[in-house]
């Protein structure tokens, strides 16, 4: 019993964190409670590392319904490697189900709750390591944020993407196909029978949605950041390979605990640059910009979204995935996966930082050295036939977005380099949807959807319904949409989001009036409102003060604390709340 009670706070012993709750005579009550959990059986178990499994099993999210089973695989692998696993769960919001109504206002804010709750459990119980099991939407970035706050050895293994579905013409479908089918059906371009068949087959299995939407964007970016294993972003949720990743991840985590390799050792400025570089090569979701900025904030890294344009200028767009093409994540996997894309970028450019260490115990270069492009139609060669010579995302600046805005340039028809149109203004997404449904939107319009930013929404809801309806109506090249809200990774077309400053902060987007001319310049990465400064100043004088929309619940607090999209939409910290 003597060894059980000994504890040296300065020890480098691998279980020194959890010794805070299980070693010493004063922790006898805690040990009694630990025995009561059933996870610890005897004093020898008390000497082993305590490993948290931060799960996100939620039955209403198809990308998470299988995570309970995957957690059991992880638990066994951790026990086999000499650890004691303890599972806990976070909340989650399914963006596709929460789309277009009050629920969407809770999606981005849930990222902060997920980070807060994971931080709470990990810190309160002094875990030695954490096995994170995310998959969809805001859960992945929320967990990454928590890992950086706690800075405990951690590994991430996502739940994996679902298989693509098939439409009535036997063409591959993803969730974006269903959203666009709504517009097609309303416009008479699809029969009711075709519509219902698409509805029932667009999402055929568990897993994150099959295209390069936010979930899969973040799950692939974790590979290049070095916090997840190769093929984390593309191995199907239902595959044996996904289970093998879980087992391998558990083994690597136990090594990292022993070697004390922590998230802040891996997530550096260079790692974030490489994440955005991969995002450019794959045309990822615009939401990745928000999340990379929030991750940088938690890591204490000064990261300006203006830097993203510099990365985009240096790298081509190599793999165009749904909703921007017919290819799904499983196609990318079979074509060589993310490792093949990273290897191509390393060989053909000097943009990446390939000698960074990763969770495998090897460098990024070593992780991908043996992985080649198998199908160069799905993953194109750097110097042969890239989709474009510059990356798939752009940050646009100008008098309409002085602090920046984001467009998925890879989701815009390649023939469009410039677009000038006439503003038609809506103060909410719902107003815009009603206008689209009633036939008020025509070629040459620039829809302005404002007061949907982090504060104004509140929660910066995704504006997927309007963009999908426009695409489904066949107006994807003739109509643009500009918003201080954000977009789903499933959005495409001339869609500019994250306009900063937002309308609720008296940003210029609040001053736009019907009929104003707006130019979106993808070549020079600018967005200009053709109204002179004198007129804008006069409009500002008559601008009514913003009135918060939610007065009850935690979202009321969120409105008061959230910052702008150009800083990641994180909450104000001590420096802002308690200035010295």
- Percent of residues in beta strands? 5-15%
Q: What oligomeric state do the depicted chains represent?
A: single chain
Characterize the biggest β-sheet. 8 strands, mixed
The class by helix and strand makeup works out as alpha/beta
End-to-end separation in angstroms reads 50 Å
Give me the Rg, rounded: 24 Å
Task: Give the overall form.
Answer: globular
How many distinct beta strands?
A: 14
Q: Residue ranges: pLDDT <50 for 5 or more in a row? A: 1-14
Catalytic activity: (2R)-2,3-dihydroxy-3-methylbutanoate = 3-methyl-2-oxobutanoate + H2O; (2R,3R)-2,3-dihydroxy-3-methylpentanoate = (S)-3-methyl-2-oxopentanoate + H2O
Cofactor: [2Fe-2S] cluster; Mg(2+)
Subunit structure: Homodimer.
Keywords: 2Fe-2S, Amino-acid biosynthesis, Branched-chain amino acid biosynthesis, Iron, Iron-sulfur, Lyase, Magnesium, Metal-binding
């Amino acid at each position: 019993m003597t060894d059980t009670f000994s504890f040296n706070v300065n020890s480098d012993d691998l279980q020194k964190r959890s010794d805070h709750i299980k070693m010493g005579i004063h922790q006898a009550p805690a040990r009694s409670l630990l025995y009561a959990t059933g996870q610890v059986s005897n004093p020898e178990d008390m000497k082993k590392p305590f490993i948290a499994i931060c799960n996100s099993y939620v039955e209403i999210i198809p990308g998470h319904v299988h995570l309970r089973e995957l957690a059991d695989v992880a638990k066994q692998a951790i026990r086999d490697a000499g650890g004691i696993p303890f599972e806990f769960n976070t909340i989650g919001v399914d963006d596709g189900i929460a789309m277009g109504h009050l629920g969407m206002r809770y999606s981005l804010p849930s990222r902060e709750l997920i980070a807060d709750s994971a931080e709470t459990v990990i810190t309160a119980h002094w875990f030695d390591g954490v096995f994170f099991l995310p998959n969809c939407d805001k859960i992945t970035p929320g967990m990454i944020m928590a890992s950086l706050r706690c800075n405990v050895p951690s590994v991430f293994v996502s739940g994996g993407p679902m298989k693509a579905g098939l439409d009535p013409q036997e063409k591959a479908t993803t969730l974006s196909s269903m959203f666009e089918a709504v517009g097609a059906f309303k416009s008479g371009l699809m029969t009711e029978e075709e519509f219902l068949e698409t509805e029932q087959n667009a999402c055929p299995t568990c897993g994150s949605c099959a295209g390069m939407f936010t979930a899969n964007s973040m799950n692939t970016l974790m590979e290049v950041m070095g916090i997840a294993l190769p093929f984390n972003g593309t191995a199907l949720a239902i595959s044996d390979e996904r289970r093998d990743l879980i087992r391998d991840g558990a083994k690597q985590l136990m090594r990292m605990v022993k070697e004390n390799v922590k998230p802040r050792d891996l997530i550096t400025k260079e790692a974030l640059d490489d994440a955005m570089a991969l995002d450019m090569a794959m045309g990822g979701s615009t939401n990745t910009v928000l999340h990379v900025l929030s991750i940088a904030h938690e890591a204490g890294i000064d990261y300006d979204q203006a830097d993203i344009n510099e990365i985009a200028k240096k790298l081509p767009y190599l793999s165009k995935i749904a909703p921007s093409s017919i290819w799904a994540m499983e196609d990318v996997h079979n074509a060589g996966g993310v490792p093949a894309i990273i290897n191509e970028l390393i060989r053909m450019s000097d943009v990446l930082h390939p000698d960074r260490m990763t969770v495998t115990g090897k460098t990024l270069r070593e992780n991908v050295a043996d992985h080649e492009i198998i199908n160069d139609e799905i993953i194109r060669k750097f110097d042969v036939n890239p989709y474009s010579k510059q990356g798939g995302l752009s940050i646009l600046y100008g008098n309409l977005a002085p602090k920046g805005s984001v467009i998925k340039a890879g989701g815009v028809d390649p023939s469009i380099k410039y677009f000038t149109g006439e503003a038609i203004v809506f103060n909410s997404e719902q107003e815009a949807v009603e206008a689209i449904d009633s036939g008020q939107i025509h070629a040459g319009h620039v829809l302005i959807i404002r007061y949907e930013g982090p504060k104004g929404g509140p929660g910066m809801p995704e504006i997927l319904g309007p963009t999908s309806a426009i695409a489904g109506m066949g107006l994807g090249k003739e109509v643009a949409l500009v918003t201080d809200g954000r977009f789903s990774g499933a959005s495409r077309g001339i869609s500019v989001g994250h306009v900063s400053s937002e309308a609720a902060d008296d940003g210029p987007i609040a001053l736009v009036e019907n009929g104003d001319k707006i130019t979106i310049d993808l070549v020079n990465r600018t967005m200009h409102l053709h109204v002179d400064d004198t007129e804008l100043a006069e409009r500002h004088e008559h601008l009514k003060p913003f009135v918060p929309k939610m007065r009850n619940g935690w979202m009321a607090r969120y409105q008061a604390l959230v910052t702008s999209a150009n800083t990641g939409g994180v909450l104000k910290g001590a420096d802002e709340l308690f200035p010295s």
